[in-house]
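Human: We require from you a protein record containing the residue sequence and its fold in token form, and nothing else.

Assistant:
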Amino acid sequence: QVPLPIILDVAYNDPEAYEQFLEEPDEHHHEHHHEHHHEHHHEHHHHHSAHLENDGFISISFTSDRPFEIQKFQDFLDNLTSDVFRAKGILWFQESDLKHIFQLSGKRCSMEAETWTTTPSNQVVFIGRNLNAEQIRAALKDCIV
């Protein structure tokens, strides 16, 4: 389940906040919201999650403690199904000493490079309709060096 703010690109524009979100297990992140804003976020979060599931939307997360090869990741993006509507994450490339904040909306893609302040890793989430999670994860694994 992906919080609606990510889909709407509202709460996770700050790379540090987004990195924190990616590091938290879903259960912990879920409980965190309940502890501080139980009534509002509980109803709001579940309403939209059910709506997204009913419409065939799915989120697929991928993490790796080994870097991607830039050209392989570019090929992955070039062949990505049009059913992926959004993707966001922190990317680590073998060819770079910097971390890359990745955002994809439709066919538009952007990356911002920053200095690593944590141990390098890949952490990315894809959001779309009727996605094949196994196929996407296998293609991402093929990008790993």
